[in-house]
Amino acid sequence: MAPSDLRRPFKRPLISDQEKRRAQSLLRQAQNRQDAQRHARFLVSTVLTLPSQSYVPESQPEPEPELQVELELTESISSSGSNSLENLDVLGASKLKAAEARKWFAKQLMLPEWMIDVPNNLAQDWFVFARPSGKRCFVVSCNGTTISRLRNGSILNRFPSALPSGARKKESGSSQSYSILDCIFHELDQTYYVIDMVCWRGYSLSDCTAEFRFFWLNSKLAESGACEPPSYYHKYRFSLVPVYGCDSNGLQAAYSAPVPYVKDGLLFYNKHAHYQAGITPLALVWKDENCSQYVMDTDSKGQVPNQQQVVLELQEDGKLTTSDDPPIVFGCLDGSFIQQSGLHSGCLVRFSIGEGGLILMDGKLEKADLHYLGKANRARGSADSFSKVLLTTMLQFYTFRLCSNTVFDTPP
């Protein structure tokens, strides 16, 4: 294919809509906060206008909180089926069976988009830190035990910890209290590096800004004793990750300063972002060969394949989509091919990206040159995001052109 043909599809992503989606996410947060405040005011005004409750004799006590939660969970599951999983909290999810629990936890992590443009007001509105290499997971301490779950929802470790209600000892806290940490398990030093805090002692932080969550995390985690060396009631050590502002000094420190773990790129968090499940443009990841071992996807031997690959989710109508919300459609499979290949709705399918690459117009996908490879690894929990496919494809394209000694425009 001629250089002009190769170059054109990959020049269009410069007009990305990532900044627009960041603004929309912040607006949705503000709207949700206003809706919650209106709902709270309505509840207060309703309670104040209700008549006094009638006397309830001692012989008819109200059900205990734990029993009430369990009854509500049973009723909701039986009445609305699997759709009710989206409305459960961690206490409710802890009572689910293995497959349902994996399905619930697999959708709770906040996942970053890949940085395909530089955000406005980067220095004022964003944090940055060096992401540890390892297994991304939720760590939940509840009812005297601590469990870590991977991105696909499966259990990584079950262990006692110094987190609130994380071990079976008297001073561990109330059995109804629970905490949720967003961590990366670094296998080389057997340490959970905490990158975010979702809940602490039953108090949800998901609707708090990242600026407040990081402050709370730094002040509370050390107090709990979770950063201490392992012991009988504390099997794994937890550690904080240095977080910097995105001025020139902060960026340089995150990029180059030594850390006690292997780096896997840089993570950027918008200071005003709430913790929301799924992929969000208010969290971004950047990788290059100086701050990550794996800039692009590699095979089982650690080698970069000749063609980059993409994992997509098969929908009921045969469409192949990313994990974004809303998802990006890459193509559609014929019904007979789906049947012959043993695929079904919800399957994660792997494709290679051919020489035709991705054709984009005004930042939106028009066409993709995909070649079917087979089902994705069963350990995968979700499809790739559009930003990841876009960035890794661009990187491979420019790497190919450099290796070919072809003159072309400097990439962004």
UniProtKB/TrEMBL annotation:
Gene3D superfamilies given for it?
DNA ligase/mRNA capping enzyme (3.30.470.30)
Q: Which UniProt keywords apply?
A: Cytoplasm, Nucleus, RNA-binding, Transport
Record's superkingdom? Eukaryota
**Residue intervals of the Snurportin-1 m3G cap-binding domain:** 108-283
Q: What does this protein do?
A: Functions as an U snRNP-specific nuclear import adapter. Involved in the trimethylguanosine (m3G)-cap-dependent nuclear import of U snRNPs. Binds specifically to the terminal m3G-cap U snRNAs.
Task: Please state which protein family the record places this protein in.
Answer: Belongs to the snurportin family.
- State the name under which the record lists this protein: Snurportin-1
Q: Which gene encodes it?
A: LOC106752680
